[in-house]
Amino acid sequence: MTYSEDTIVAISTPLGVSGIGIVRLSGPDAVKIAEKIFKPKNPSKVVATLRTFTTHLGYVVDNNKVVDEVLMTIMRAPHSYTCEDVVEFSCHGGPLILKEVLELCLRNGARIAEPGEFTKRAFLNGRIDLSQAEAVCELINSKTELQRRLSTNSLLGKTKEKITEIANFVKEAIAEIEVAIDYPDEEDIKTIRLSITKQKIEDVISEIRTAVEYTEKIFPIINGINVAIVGKVNVGKSSLLNLLLNYERAIVSDIPGTTRDTISEIVNIKGIPIRIVDTAGIRQHSQDPIEKTGIERTKNAVKDADVIILMFDGSQEVSDDDYTVIKIILTIANEGYNKTVIPVINKIDMPQKIFATDKIMKMLMELQGKVRLYPEVVFNNFDDFKNTVVKISCVTKEGVEGLLNNIVSSQSIYSDIFSSQDAQETLIITNMRQKELLVKTQQELEKAVSLDFDTSAELVSEHLKEAVRNLQRILGGDLTEDVLDIIFSRFCVGK
Length: 495
Prior knowledge:
CATH class of the largest domain: Alpha Beta
Number of helices: 17
Shape: flat
CATH architecture of the largest domain: 3-Layer(aba) Sandwich
Structural class: alpha/beta
Distance between the termini: 20 Å
Number of domains: 3
Radius of gyration: 30 Å
Strand content: 15-25%
């Protein structure tokens, strides 16, 4: 245990008007500070002697002036979230009330907690490992049910359990190699033993490789898919955004050039957070400086997008403005950006003119090979395109469900990824820091098995030891204070 010498305080609920707001104290003087500012409604109660895990009705007072009627919960060390004395005041959730209770705690010896400091103390005091601490932040920021499930699994120690299991396995291999080094004369036994050890390490490498692959699959579930809706003016980009959000986020008008800037919102589609960007409509010869700035931002949105919805107006024949949009995508693709493009024909509720010529086919033929068109059909002729292109109506909502399915499936992400038994038993990590350390572990193990175990046993052992160190860093071992500060700075104040 590494108990801190100071006591911290923070408002642990979001600012704003609410039914309840919580002010949290943690540290050696938490109970003493509570004793100074809390007056139990039952006068026979003495704060200093109150038992742990008990809640008491009373008043927060400032020199006998009542600030608020509250419930005070006391949790004594080491049986608390931080393993320190913790006191929480459940106040009425007005910002002024919470601010006054906070200031009372500060005046009586506490200091304002840094972002994530309560959880950092829980980690430093041994209550949780670093993978569980990171899961707390990820759980708070979860935007979908899948994110919540992943974070909860890590918080419950599933990541720690699997990492520890792998680390112990590698430690056993190190012990086997050390025995072989210490007793070099038993050649037959040594050869057999090292051969078995090498096979065990290769099995571990295979397990880690599978874990990394699963992690790469779920990263878009955690971080979301960036989707840019692009097209010429008045094809219905803003209408699609509003339809997906279920409210009027963007102005919709028949006047060309209504959207001058990019508009970005996050929507939950099939359990995956998707950042939808509505871009400014493209016109070939626009002279409006504001509109030209919007078009430049459209280009940046295309660069950042994982998926580009290339939208056409089905009620019109294709035009030079459509071709200008495609040229922008081609230019960005030629700069080395790998893009998935889903061609979409909107306004199918109206008489269709888009198929009147094969000009659209020629446009898409230029994109083919430069980007990944989805659905993945090679457009050998006009019928191939006509039969497979996604067709929607933002008025009747026809085809929109199919478009959403295409967005998700184009990224090889499936909402039932965790339904299989294999997935449930696989180590799945949820952030880039952990993934990088897991990849480094795999690299060290691969270096080890590439060597001759008979002649290079000592070097093999060093690679295995570095692999173990990387695994331990996932759980928080061997990390410097500045690295920990960076990790916990992502947390909100009060957690």
